[in-house]
Amino acid sequence: MGECSLNGGCPSDYVAIFVSALSLFLLIARSAFPFLIYKLSIPKGSAFWIPAIQIVASFNLLASTVMSVNMIKFEKRYWWQSCYLWAVWAEGPFGFGLLLSCRIVQVYHLYFVFVKKRLPQIRSRFFLPLILLPWVAAAARIQIKKPLNDRCQLTILWTIPVTFLHTLYVVILVGFTRSIRHVDFRFRELKDLWRGVLVSSISVGFWVAAYILNEIHDDVKWLQVASRFLLALMTSVFVLAFFSLSSSQPLLSQISLRTRDRPEFETMGQALGIFDKGIVSKREQPLSEHCNEPLDKLLLCKRFRQSFMAFAESCWAGESVHFYDEVQELGNLPAEDSVRRIYMARHIIQNYIVPGAPMEVNISHRCREQILNTLDLAHPDLFKTALIELLHLMKTNLVRDYWSSTFYMKYREASDMERNDHDLELVTTLNVAPRLSYVQASDDPFHQDHLLKEHDILPS
């Protein structure tokens, strides 16, 4: 143990490396599982690149722990083995600092959306580098001054400001999280944020304690080995417990690695408890099959909307009908239920409104900007103008072709069959013959014996 306590390569070091690799594998598997198994579409924008950046930051943090505390026995001959690359840059700006910065960006977004009820004024792709600047400045300062020793450790004068920087970002995360603690989130956003605060606080404490033990008691060999192992183990636990998709992808948070069943809810409307997608019940007549009926009236019929949606998708223009469908779901929510309305409105904006969205609808630039710059995401008329524009577009491009399509023919046949079944049931109900019971004696509920007595007194 005497040689490996200083140069690395102890059995416990390789166990720690295995645990770190395993945690990284589980992290990647957890993030890729919904897309590989269920073939879900990869989200665009911050919903994708913020979780992706957190995976990269987790790898940097784990690799920096392995490379900077002499777990692997090798001679440092090349630039990529430098202490400043791993202990300063990989651990600081592109490791722990990047993880905390991503979580601060997420809570900043939640604060604006659910407290201010508007989209953030600074886009995430600009806000994240801004939050990360102090880490880059601190790493550049250390790189210039070169205070690290041959064991990749700082002196006490440098440890205090570095520890303060780690603690400062945890405090910032706590402050933002406290500002949204009164919001009744429908998913696990607040729980995940507090979990990130707790895990990061404990990890910083363990890292500082491990550093102090290594610095003060460097002559105790078993303590050097034990502190390295504990440091790597806590880093692995940190990245697994800290990382979460739910803050940016609520529906994906329901999917578990332990089951291959599909998630309970496949749409945001279902996840929010909005299950009624049409005003017409199963037994009611369709609104109309006539071509001269207004489209906005026909779309209120659930069966017609499904038929028209299938036709629009066959023409590669289904996003307009899907948008109408989800706006109708939003309209089913009460005006006072601002949290669920904001969830649904944000979902619609991310999928249909923002430039480059997966199902971006064809609306005017002015209408798009009005929605993106709204001061109230829960406003009942938020998508009214966009809906009017899209209805006009559907009337111009889709409706005329729909009436001559096989989709309309199938819809008409289904409507006729339902009408015939309904009429038959109505006739059967109105023409009910007197019912005679076959129950005998005193148990006869229809008093059949009374009918027999009347028959006896009739003349033969």
Number of strands: 0
Structural class category: mainly alpha
Low-confidence stretches: 254-260, 279-289, 426-460
CA radius of gyration: 33 Å
Count the DSSP helices. Answer: 19
CA distance, first residue to last residue = 121 Å
What overall geometry do the principal axes of the alpha carbons give? elongated
User: How is the biggest beta sheet arranged?
Assistant: none
Strand content: under 5%
Helix content: 55-70%
Structure, explained:
The chain has 460 residues and is mostly helical. It has 19 helices and no strands. α5 (92-116) runs antiparallel to α6 (124-145), α5 packs parallel to α7 and α12 (302-314) runs antiparallel to α13 (319-331). Keywords: Membrane, Transmembrane, Transmembrane helix. It comes from Saponaria officinalis. Pfam families: RGS. The chain crosses the membrane at residues 15-36, 48-72, 92-114, 126-144, 156-176, 196-213, 225-245.
Keywords:
460 residues; 64% helix; disordered C terminus
Secondary-structure map:
Layout: H1 4-7, H2 11-37, H3 46-68, H4 83-90, H5 92-116, H6 124-145, H7 156-179, H8 189-216, H9 221-242, H10 268-271, H11 295-298, H12 302-314, H13 319-331, H14 338-353, H15 365-372, H16 384-397, H17 399-403, H18 406-430, H19 448-457
Pfam families: RGS (PF00615)
Transmembrane segments: 15-36, 48-72, 92-114, 126-144, 156-176, 196-213, 225-245
Protein name: RGS domain-containing protein
